[in-house]
TrEMBL record:
Pfam families: DUF4130
Residue ranges constituting the DUF4130 domain according to the UniProt record: 90-251
InterPro entries reported in the protein's UniProt record: DNA_repair_put, DUF4130
Name assigned to this protein: Probable DNA metabolism protein
Length: 253
């Protein structure tokens, strides 16, 4: 078995698919598996091949998916690559094997196990994105920049940032993924870009959560005031707002 691995970014995964497909043309798709780096199930009898990013290969794969299958198929693959599920990358690869044979109809074949699996992964990523759109809380630092910390399971901070770029276009802000040590930075009336941080950067940025302003206290008071004590239901609250998502939510600190 040839196991292709890559870094946990969408661009790297597209390059990984490119090289895996190239190898599969010689040995067959059944002899190839794709895994994200750090999640490999090490075996003495498998050959591991690490794939690095190549812009031309990345563009070729994206272009082929959109033109030879469909935009919907590309969306399925894109969200699968954002997922934290261990089999997400290999599922995307299996989905593409069938997609390039069948064409755009592949996205409607819900009785196919690979299609069902990638649709399920996509749904989970979209749900997590919507959750964090609602649970994101910003701290104002010196009335100059707004900082938000999140710890999503899937790599969804860019998708979350698109929501706030539409609603806060004239503000300086950044949304930080503490798990992946990266952030999306938005400048006033400018474009967004992704930046990766060192451990030291993260230790400094962690202090931004200790900064309180008048709106922090007002929000906590508002949260307590609108609560109806006789309808207090922590179990229902956990269903609507899971405990693991509350770490950086102002009203629960």
């Amino acid at each position: 078995m040839y196991i292709f691995t890559c870094e946990n970014t969408f661009e790297d995964m597209m390059c990984c698919i490119y090289h895996a497909w190239e190898k599969a043309l010689k040995v067959g798709h059944g002899c190839v598996r794709l895994e994200k780096r750090g999640e490999e199930q090490i075996s003495l009898f498998d050959e591991y091949i690490y794939v690095e990013y190549n812009e031309e290969e990345y563009k070729k794969v994206v272009r082929s998916i959109k033109h030879k299958i469909s935009e919907e198929a590309y969306a399925c693959v894109y969200y699968a690559c954002l997922s934290s599920e261990q089999d997400a990358l290999d599922t995307a690869y299996r989905f593409l094997i069938k997609g390039f044979k069948i064409g755009s109809d592949i996205t409607f074949m819900r009785n196919d196990p690979d299609v069902m699996r990638i649709k399920d992964i996509r749904r989970k990523v979209l749900h997590e994105t919507r959750y964090f759109m609602e649970f994101a809380r910003f701290n104002s630092i010196g009335n100059k920049v707004y900082v938000c910390h999140l710890e999503p399971e899937s790599d969804v901070i860019y998708e979350v940032s698109l929501h706030f770029a539409d609603r806060m276009p004239s503000e300086n802000w950044l949304i930080i993924d503490d798990n992946r040590k990266k952030s999306v930075v938005h400048t006033t009336d400018g474009q967004m870009y992704i930046r990766y941080f060192t451990d030291y950067d993260m230790s400094v940025l962690a202090k931004t959560e200790d900064v309180n302003d008048e709106y922090t206290d007002m929000w906590k008071i508002f949260f307590e005031t609108i609560a109806i004590k006789h309808r207090y239901n922590p179990e229902c609250q956990r269903n609507l707002m899971p405990v693991w998502m509350r770490k950086h939510v102002t009203e629960f600190q």
